[in-house]
Specification:
The protein has four helices and two strands. It is mostly helical. The protein is elongated. The structure holds zinc ion. The site of zinc ion has 8 residues, from loops.
């Protein structure tokens, strides 16, 4: 049973649903065990010690896909904000958001999309009014 949670983007405050499991849990262990037994019985025609390796490979593949799914869905589909990247490198995360918003502005896919609730910003005197304000400046 996949656990799904409703979360809000830290940048645009848009709501979305994400899977909370980052890795293999009890359900995946049981599923991997059942799959390994079925595969071992089908392939070797009896219970075989090599079924343990099938089980381990199944768990490894499951872990990889669960982590990839979590990592891909954590990026906001509305503004492109990546909280994991932001923790490692805020400037690079800001650059990704800027590129995403520029593409969003030019793309017809987002014409009917709801308007983003981006942080308010008023350019100072003499400052050009580009999307540079989306660069999250560190301390
Ligand atoms: Zn967002």
């Amino acid at each position: 049973m996949a656990r799904v949670k409703n979360v809000y983007c830290a940048f645009c405050r848009s709501s979305r649903r994400i899977y909370t499991s980052r890795g293999v849990g009890a359900v995946h262990l049981v599923g991997g065990l059942i799959w390994s037994v079925i595969f071992t019985m089908g392939y070797f025609r009896e219970m075989d010690f090599r079924g343990v390796f099938v089980f381990l490979v199944t768990l490894g593949v499951s872990e990889i896909f669960l982590r990839l799914r979590w990592r891909m869905q954590i990026v906001c589909p509305h503004c492109g904000f990546d909280p994991v990247l932001y923790l490692k490198n805020p400037e690079q995360a800001a650059a990704h958001v800027r590129v995403f918003l520029e593409r969003r502005q030019a793309s017809p896919d987002f014409l009917l999309a709801p308007r983003l609730n981006l942080p308010a910003y008023t350019p100072a005197e003499g400052e050009n009014n580009t999307m540079d304000h989306l660069l999250l400046r560190g301390p």
